[in-house]
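Our preliminary data section would be incomplete without showing what the modeling component actually yields. Below, a chain of 160 amino acids is followed by its predicted structure, encoded as tokens that our downstream tools consume directly.
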Amino acid sequence: DPPKKFFRLAPGREVRLRGAYFITCTSVVKDDSGAIIELRCTYDPSTRGGDSADGRKVKATLHWVAAKTALDAEVRVYDRLFSVEQPGADGGDYRRDLNPASLQVKAAKLEPSAATAQPGDRFQFERLGYFCVDSDTKDGRLVVNRTVTLKDSFKSTPRP
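Predicted structure:
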């Protein structure tokens, strides 16, 4: 069972797929190691466009891409380079103040339209921020860098 106040897709839960329908997870398929490999769901065809005729409300809207057409991408998420406001201010080596999490590299699935992106092109990824196509993009290997985050009203990150 998902934790309390978990308003995402889970067995028996109904959510909205952005630009599509309400879906309900009916079962979870796992591999031999216990990793989730598939979610089986049903959809309500009367909810196309996001609303139900009977007035049902869902607590989550999921942004999604179709597995068959999704484009693989490398996403570089940058954070503050230093973990303190004034690196080396204590008289020590400024390198001790480097933020070890200043770069996270993640695998992502993008809409197929991103296949034509060129270095320097910019996009907003909903709920995540603004991204720029990196010059490391070559031979069908798309690399994007986060340039600006979006305001997150749920999490406050203290500034150093």
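The beta strands are 14-17, 22-30, 36-44, 61-62, 71-78, 103-110, 122-125, 129-133, 142-149. The CA atoms of residues 11 and 87 lie 48 Å apart. Preliminary results of this kind motivate Aim 1 of the renewal.
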